[in-house]
Write a structure and sequence with these properties.
There is one protein chain. The protein is of the alpha/beta class. Helices cover 41% and strands 12% of the residues. The chain is built from 31 helices and 18 strands. Strands 1, 2, 3, 4, 5, 6, 7, 8 and 9 form a nine-stranded parallel β-sheet that branches. A three-stranded parallel β-sheet has the order 17-10-18, covered by helices on one side. A three-stranded parallel β-sheet has the order 11-12-13. Helix 20 crosses helix 28. The C terminus is likely disordered.
């Protein structure tokens, strides 16, 4: 039975659905427009329908996700979508020092890090048929022996499964029937968003899909149909808010349902909300309206019924909106990476998986990991999964549920590369097939030059360069002496190391350069009696400073510094409470381990008690400063007044375990040796492995010192080596490497962002209230200036929160 085409009140439509009716486009359009009480009723039915399906599937109260590595195989594309920041032109690639395609070695370097972090999916995303528009893409494919971009996708998919055991999810855009069949043995699932059936958006000049041949709705529907005929578990969905009408949304949902009813192959429907991106034709368009988006999720649930998984990307919504999305019938968060950025939406970072599990639990659901293919398709592998992948899928699947098993992916059989012409070789790698059994190569052969040198025929030959490439694939593969070699590199070796580190940055945390708008306050200047000179302040001043910072657009107030011995240690708590009372929406990043110990010791609270008191007072995260190098020898020579090394480690570890995230630092360029720098980085990585509490690492040249590790090496090269090695050694552990622009200058900061850095730290507002009370007063990095630094590098820029989330818009926040 079908609900008729006449417009009916929402209550009547919902009653008909409860009676077993199916929605048609007319009825779906009415429901998409629901507001107020009608929307509430729509959400209730959608949630009940979802719950019915989860119970029937043996997954009551479960919301799923896939732990993935996002691999942007190429950012060249023949389309010109008006909202996209994923694609590059060949000219932009040159300016970014970025290769046309990721090499097999680069892919494996990223995927192996994801493997170590428990990932089971490799999302292969790329532009549509770039060789049809760009001669540079065609030349790269010819040079490396591939008939097409899709031929290369198939080779890479086979390679990653053979070498790591991870399963590919191919998302290469429009494919023909023969290409779908060719890719089926390489990936358990594939995907392509329908986005919309609107021909107006495709055919009308100025609309989002005009000039993009692969966004023809009829062509995309044909791909989904042919995927079903080929027996491929397929992911598709709609994009809400790109100029389509409610009727377009309704017809898009019905069209996808009809294709699924024909083949039974659609494994999940993504309902994605449009988010405007800078430097695109739609940069000034409004984001998708929240309630319209939520209604679309609910209608998708009711169109497809209880047994379809309805996916919403959590990074494209604010956490406060999750409850609405779940009420609307969503039951899958999609692919989320603990390692790589969302390269399609670089301004919207993934939520931390621990945070997502907590937020999901708060909504009454358990978060469970699945594979690239949804459980029904895994359980019916004989029908839906190509025999070539049966063993790889079975190795990662729970046989009872079809969800992901609690196992780590492991290599399958060595990859033969049989799909690649035997005559094809990667220039600069003598005798090595373009897609080889990478595990059989020596360290010296696994060296695809991250700056694109391999494709230009220049072969890295030095130990330093080979070590950098080995580190890119496995940071734990190098011993201390080898890391010292990298820290001491000069000349073209250093250039190659910096380029390798920058590619590790590019293919993990992404291209975005970030900045937090903040105000610093030195708690060493606090006086209970009130201000009595420059740099000092009282409790009333704290409130005025915090309120002023918030009014200027700051999302963070950073407070650190040991109180004067004459001050009551409870003032640490008073300051925190004053900040939060005056600016409750501001993130309080406060108190180094040394400061925490002062409160713990003089306040008689003990370490755990001090941390609990700081949490109750409103502290959100803690700075990981207060130590130069984690070496007792260095401390004795340079900073005997710093907290002892073992107490710093104890305090930062306790803070992490108490739920605080923190920064981490290393001050270099004084008496420390290269080996002591390496030991410091290894200790940070060890702590991170236990607590996962560090958000970023900041390599800081010690003020007043400029002692090079290598005699005669220029200061900039000292910084480049430190940043590059930090990125390589900490990759897969501490995600962000911050460039301390206040210590190196803005021009040098730009160069260090090309050596593995991705963050510029804080804007360091002086503010209008007692500007002399802040650390580094007189040094400000306006948001516009930071954005210009990123633009010079042809990289996107975003404002971030202290813990690398997305700030809410408000005063001073564009």
């Amino acid at each position: 039975m079908s609900v008729g085409s006449t417009v009916s009140p929402v209550d009547d439509l919902l009653d008909a659905l409860r009676g077993g009716a199916a929605l048609d486009a007319d009825a779906a359009e009415v429901l998409l427009a629901a507001t107020g009480a009608d929307l509430e009723a729509l959400l209730d039915l959608a949630a009940a329908t979802r719950d019915e399906g989860l119970a029937a599937a043996g997954q009551p109260g479960v919301i799923t996700y896939s732990r993935k590595v996002f691999v942007p195989l190429t950012t060249l594309c023949r389309d010109r979508c008006h909202y996209c920041v994923f694609v590059d032109t060949p000219g932009q690639l040159l300016k970014k020092r970025k290769p046309a395609f990721m090499s097999p070695e680069q892919v494996l370097a990223v995927v192996r890090q994801g493997q170590a972090m428990g990932c089971k999916e490799v999302l292969l995303t790329l532009g549509d048929r770039p060789e049809d528009r760009w001669p540079e893409a065609r030349a790269w494919l010819d040079e490396h022996g591939y008939a097409s971009t899709l031929d290369y996708v198939a080779a890479i998919a086979r390679l990653v499964t053979a070498e790591t055991g991870l399963l590919a999810h191919a998302n290469p855009g429009v494919m023909h029937a023969d290409e779908l069949r060719m890719l089926r043995p390489t990936a358990p699932s594939m995907g392509m968003m329908l986005e919309t059936t609107s021909r107006r958006l495709f055919e009308e000049p100025g609309q989002v899909h005009f000039g993009s041949p692969d966004k023809d709705p009829d062509l995309r529907l044909k791909v989904i149909d042919e995927a079903g005929a080929a027996g491929i578990p397929f992911t598709t969905g709609i994009l809400v808010g790109i100029g389509e009408t409610l009727r377009d949304r309704a017809e898009s949902l019905i069209a996808m349902r009809e294709l699924h009813e024909r083949h039974g192959h659609v494994q999940e429907i993504i309902v994605q909300n449009f988010r405007a991106k800078p430097r695109t034709a739609m940069q000034d368009a409004p984001d998708a309206d929240l309630l319209e988006y939520v209604a679309a999720v609910a209608v998708a649930r009711l169109v497809f019924g209880p047994h379809m998984r309805i996916q919403v990307p959590p990074n494209l919504s604010d956490a406060a909106e999750f409850a609405l999305l779940v009420r609307a019938g969503a039951d899958d968060w999609g692919g989320i990476s603990p390692l790589t950025a969302d390269h399609v939406n670089p301004e919207r970072p993934w939520p931390h998986l621990d945070d997502l599990a907590r937020m999901t639990a708060e909504l009454g659901f358990a978060l469970r990991e699945r594979l690239t293919a949804q459980p029904p398709f895994v359980r019916d592998a004989d029908r839906w999964i190509d025999p070539a992948l049966h063993s790889a899928v079975a190795a990662l699947a729970d046989p009872a549920t079809g969800l992901a098993a609690d196992v780590t992916a492991a290599p399958r059989e060595p990859y033969s590369g049989s799909s690649v012409p035997s005559s094809s070789h990667t220039p600069g790698i003598s005798g090595v097939p373009a897609v080889a059994d990478a595990s059989s190569l020596s360290t010296g052969e696994r060296h695809a030059d991250s700056a694109g040198n391999a494709s230009r025929g220049r072969r890295p030959t030095s130990d330093a360069r080979r070590l950098a490439e080995a580190a890119a694939g496995d940071p734990l593969a190098l011993d201390d002496a080898e890391w010292v070699t990298l820290l001491q590199a000069t000349g073209t070796d250093l250039d190659a190391i910096a380029a390798t580190a920058d590619d590790v940055r590019r293919y993990t945390v992404g291209e975005t350069v970030s900045l937090v708008v903040n105000r610093n306050l030195s708690s060493s200047g606090f006086r209970a009696a009130g201000r009595h000179g420059p740099g000092t302040f009282g409790l009333d001043d704290v409130a005025r400073i915090a309120a002023d910072a918030a009014d200027l657009g700051a999302t963070e107030v950073c407070v650190q510094g040991r109180l004067e011995a004459a001050e009551d240690p409870r003032a640490y708590l008073d300051i925190a409470r004053a900040v939060k009372a005056a600016a409750p929406g501001v993130h309080l990043h406060a108190y180094r381990p040394q400061d925490v110990w002062d409160l713990a010791d003089r306040g008689g609270l003990g370490l755990d008690g001090a941390l609990a008191a700081l949490r109750d007072a409103g502290v959100d995260t803690v700075p990981g400063t207060g130590v130069k190098v984690l070496s007792d020898r260095v401390r004795a020579l340079v900073a005997p007044g710093d907290v002892e090394v073992d107490r710093w480690v104890a305090a930062i570890t306790a803070a992490h375990r108490a739920g605080f995230r923190s920064t981490s630092v290393l001050f270099y360029g004084h008496v420390e040796t290269a080996a002591e720098r390496v030991a410091h980085l290894r200790e940070l990585r060890r702590i991170q492995g236990e607590t996962n509490g560090f958000t970023e690492f900041v390599p800081i040249p010690l003020p007043g010192h400029s002692i090079p590790l290598v005699a005669g090496r220029a200061p900039l090269d000292e910084h480049r080596a430190m940043v590059a090695v930090s990125r390589l050694l900490l990759s897969g552990s501490i995600p962000h490497v911050q460039i301390p622009w206040t210590r190196v200058g803005k021009d040098a900061a730009a160069e260090l962002l090309r050596s593995g850095g991705d963050d510029l730290g804080g804007a360091l507002l002086d503010g209008r209230v007692l500007p002399d009370a802040g650390v580094e007063q007189g040094l400000e990095l306006p948001v516009a200036d930071a954005a210009r630094i990123a633009a010079r590098l042809f990289r996107p820029f975003r404002l971030r929160t202290t813990d690398y989330g997305t700030p809410a818009r408000g005063p001073g926040i564009p």
